[in-house]
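Revision sheet: structure tokens.
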Amino acid sequence: MYGVSRAGDAGIFMYIHGYTGGMKDQPKELELAAVTHPLDAAVKVPGSKSITNRALLIAAMATGRSTLEGVLIADDTRYMLAALRALGLRVELDEVKAAVVVEGQDGAVPARAADLFVGGAGTAMRFLTGFLTLARGRFRIDGDERMRQRPIGPMIEALTSLGVDVVSERGNGCPPLIIEAVGRDFRGGKCQLDASQSSQFASGLLLPAPLWSDGLELTVIGAVARPFIDMTLKLMQRWGARVDSAGGVIRVPGQQRYMAMNFTVEPDASSLSYFAAAAALCGGRVRLPGVTADSVQGDLEFLGVLEMMGAEVRRENDGVEVTGRGRLAGVEIDMSAMPDMVPTLAAIAPFASSPTAIRNVAFIRHHESDRLKALATELKRLGADVTENDDGLFIRPSQLRPATVETYNDHRIAMSFAVAALKLGGIRIKNPSCVAKTYPGFFADLASLA
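Predicted:
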């Protein structure tokens, strides 16, 4: 199914059918061939990154031992695990079982100083920043070069208004951050937060808030991706915290405790989207087990977008099944509630019979790449007729041609264009190993569709 072009091979080109290797086996460039028949497959995607990193942090704050099953084992979650260990917390990872045992410290942070590195993990950066309000001492959090360009200023302002000594080391509202924490002397209180750039700012404040003496009354302004804030609140409640959310104000009473529990992480809805989109685009059916009706993941709403485009979606007690006819209609849609789905939609939109308009997602320019610019650039490279707007994309039906796609070290760019390649064929994906951020086995699972 896959063709591989290795840098430095002076034009040597080899085809690998049924690729099953791990990330270490992947070359610097990967070519995907089109599927030649309707799909008929089942894919169990790994655990949710968003849930895994929230659950790890809540378990670390809880009273007692928690066992987390079905966790995602990928770069973003490894950074969170490493940070928790660096802060003196006991976490044991069983990679074979995809399980983690966390010894909760009832909100205590054993370390009195640490220099934390989170790579490109936005959840780890934002959540750990809030978590360190429970610590006492001096802490520094840094990330990779792209993370150093991603804004966190509104979260700094909110924490500062609550009395936290936190600064951007370079004074530009981006990481690295320096935090001088006072532990139990920090009380919490009322603050206002501009969440127009990332919902993670709000989640980072909310997660430790039940353990603050005065709790938190958070007024959220301009919230994007609100379902991710709702996910945070639902998980806090599952672990025993009381919260009240009305309109743009979220109230979390203080002096609470998270109680340890055994918890199973849902399959990742964002990862599921690629296989659902593949069925809609190529025709046939793909079964996706494990996602249920009580899911806390807002990205599952993308299945409704695929229905609008012409796919059939069956929601069952133990998962979903997506059936496509290989024919799509375009959609006009505000994607602010599910921004991670923008690349997936954009990659299949040129194959639709009518235009697709994606609106209200200017903030994804601050994700792992400037995703609007990256998507427009790479779609045009394939021959798509696309207009890049300030807050979205307008993509017209297009006759595409194979080309080499730059991924900007962005996992979602790589995975989305891999789906388009199943229809077009001949697309080469640069730096395919970037999918290790959230889905190390992605290309092997994609190969299973053939």
